[in-house]
Amino acid sequence: MTDLPLLYHTHHTIEAEDIPFWLAQAEKFPGPILELGCGTGRVLIPLAQTGARLVGVDKDAQMLAFLRANLSEAHTAQINLIRGDFRHFCLTSRFALILMPCNTFSTLAVADRQAVLNRVRLHSQPGACFVVSMPNPLFLAELPQTGDPEVELIFSHPLTENPVEVSSEWQHRKHGVAFQWHYDHIFPDGRIKRQSLTAYHLHQKIENVYVAFKKAGLEIIATHGDYDGEEFNPDESTHLIITAHARD
Ligand SMILES: C[S@@+](CC[C@H](N)C(=O)[O-])C[C@H]1O[C@@H](n2cnc3c(N)ncnc32)[C@H](O)[C@@H]1O
Question: How far apart are CA 243 and CA 145, in angstroms?
Answer without folding.
Answer: 31
